[in-house]
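Lab meeting prep.
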Amino acid sequence: MGIKSLVILGVLFSNLCYADLLTPEMVLSEAYKSNPALAAVKATADAEKELISSEYSLSSPRLGFMRETDMSFMQMEDGPMKTWSISQEFLFPTKYFSRGSIQEAKAKRSLHELRYKKLQIRAESLSTYFKPKSVHKTSRPILLTFPS
């Protein structure tokens, strides 16, 4: 055997060894990491989950400042008028509970969409992974049935 044939056998053997190292778990993890649609659905689900607490709580208070500029002569003698204000909007308590439960339902729906997307990607990836193996297994008996 020459050096050339040893190199060719080495390359073929390394390709076969590398092909066996690729497992279905590796295929799935790579498919989950590299799929932009899954990342978008995951970001939506995370955002919907984060909004739950804000729907149960009060809105942010408002701070106001007013300075009166259109004053009469007598008002100008007293000095400029400045007003500070802080206001808070309060809704009826059941509104907070209903808004929070609606947001929880939206978050649950987003989580179901995420699971569905993962299952779709899983089905596509595993069928692509096992397709060459199944074609190879089904083609062997067909080739063996033909007379040589």
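Slide two material, second protein:
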Amino acid sequence: MDAFNSWKIPSAGIQLEGKATPEVERRQKEYLEERRSNWKLTERSMSLFYRLRRVMGSTVIIQLWEPIMEVFEDDGPLPFCGKLTGMSIEEVKVDGRYYPQLYIQIQSPYNILNGNRGEDPLENKELWQDEMTILINCSDIFTLEIINTDSIT
């Protein structure tokens, strides 16, 4: 998970209970601002980019990250499977600043688990580029497992 988190732009996180005092909110905003101003890509970030590029065409299993997983790891979104067909680094604007983000394309994704566990990320229309392909920001990935490398040359 660390390699994927190295692409994650620092965020405020979630408040589990109650409301923060104005002083706590101020300190949290200052801390977040400091973390965002110091954020940059690392060797680990670029290592992930090059590793994924080497396995382009592979079948992968992906589980996306949801903040509730900080408390209940098993309550995350359902994992899905598909073929890694593309990737790009895009500039994303957050609070007036631009940050590089790694996106991957997954072709013909399908869920691999059923049941009441977690949300179905494939129902999120914002992920879909077209009828067959979804685009995922790598900072949203919790796990990625390569299960088939037959098409790698």
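Talking points for slide two:
Strands lie at 59-64, 80-94, 97-111, 133-137, 141-148.
The chain has one domain: 2-148.
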